Amino acid sequence: MLLFLAEYLTQYIGAFQVFQYLTLRGILATGTALAISLVVGPVMIRKLSFHQVGQSVRDDGPQSHLSKAGTPTMGGALILVSIAISTLLWADLSNPYIWIVLLVTGVFGAVGWVDDYRKVVEKDSRGLPARWKYFWQSVAGLAAACYLYFAFDTPVTTDLYVPFFKDFSWSMGPLFILLAYFVIVGSSNAVNLTDGLDGLAILPTVMVGGALGILAYLTGHVDFARYLHIPYVAGSGELVVFCGTIGGAGLGFLWFNTYPAQVFMGDVGALALGAALGTVAVITRHEIVFFIMGGIFVLETVSVILQVASFKLTGKRIFRMAPIHHHYELKGWPEPRVIVRFWIITVMLVLFGLATLKLR
Question: pTM of the prediction?
Answer without folding.
Answer: 0.93
